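Retro notes, item 3 of 5
We never archived the inputs for the adenosine-5'-triphosphate complex last cycle. Fixing that now. Sequence and ligand:
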Amino acid sequence: MKIALLTAGGDCPGLNAVIRGVVLKGDRIYDHEFVGVKDGFRGLVEDDIVPLPRQRVRGLSKVGGTILGTSRVSPLTNGGTARVKEVMDKHEIDALIAIGGEGTLTVARMFHDDGINVVGVPKTIDNDLSATDRTFGFDTAVSVATESIDRLRTTGEAHSRCMVVEVMGRHVGWIALHAGMASGAHVILIPEVPVSPEQLCEWVQHAHDRGRAPTVVVAEGFTFAGQAQVESDQRDSFGRPLLGGVGDQVTRLIEERTGIETRNTTLGHLQRGGVPSSYDRVLATRFGTAAVDAVSNKLWGTMVALQGIDIANVNLSDATSHLKTVPRDQWDEAAILFG
Ligand SMILES: Nc1ncnc2c1ncn2[C@@H]1O[C@H](COP(=O)(O)OP(=O)(O)OP(=O)(O)O)[C@@H](O)[C@H]1O
Ligand SMILES: O=P(O)(O)OC[C@H]1O[C@](O)(CO)[C@@H](O)[C@@H]1O
Ligand SMILES: [Mg+2]
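Structure as it came back at the time:
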């Protein structure tokens, strides 16, 4: 078989490990031929497709970013599935492996509905995809955020300041919850649980009164009870507002209401760059080898997923039907230690 691979949406540590896993197993076990699609769906509609021989994926499991490039270009407004089929036919491509988040996998599901042979691989640092217990990239993002919060704590303590740390996650609080718990934060604010300014300041004051430098981890999608999400004026190429800015809002509020000197750090894309953690390298490699098995078994319209410690195949529709949010009881477990 001739198989095309693409990576779409935001990049994520572990993308190259997936590509390596697919190509190495596909070459050794099935004798498949591989090509890479450049920059996500852009390459698929603009016919930017390159050979992907075994030698090209050597040593890739520890390399951040994606050797294929990525973008948020939509195939549907650039020729649609008719154009995609035309390009695939031209290159005699039998199947597509789409590595991406909920947007990419939604498009993959639409391709499948239109008769394109496609298998999905779930990536995102946000860990917000249903039907898989974990997405690769999440563990690395949590590790980077945890190390950063640990570092911010010592400077906060030296100056008796409150330190606010804004982390990514889009509309869910997985990164904030895990990095906050790992670093022993005094408050964790996530989109799933609206908290009032009064409650936040009570926790901060309590930690301060105990002689600690209060550490507040806030997910970029958090909103105070009854308030709108903080968005930047910038839009991504898909027209959606970029999140970010809530860390500054929380910082100003704490300083105004408590008088405690407070500083914000927004970690931003540091959480997505650099080498993947060993956990993500293993998960991404397993996803890659399972994806090439799924293609070889013609499990079209499915996605590889982690269920417990096993890799499974689930329908793309199950993976994209709703966001996997943080359950309230998991935040409650952490909140016992706030303040
Ligand atoms: N509902 C949709 N209908 C049509 N195209 C979509 C849809 N959602 C996403 N896309 C397209 O899919 C691609 C990837 O989507 P998106 O930018 O949301 O990234 P993602 O795969 O969800 O990863 P991330 O975790 O970075 O959000 C883009 O090219 C976008 O144009
Ligand atoms: O890279 P961009 O387009 O700024 O997008 C940032 C968004 O992508 C993610 O990093 C991954 O979905 C989110 O956490 C964040 O909101
Ligand atoms: Mg998305």
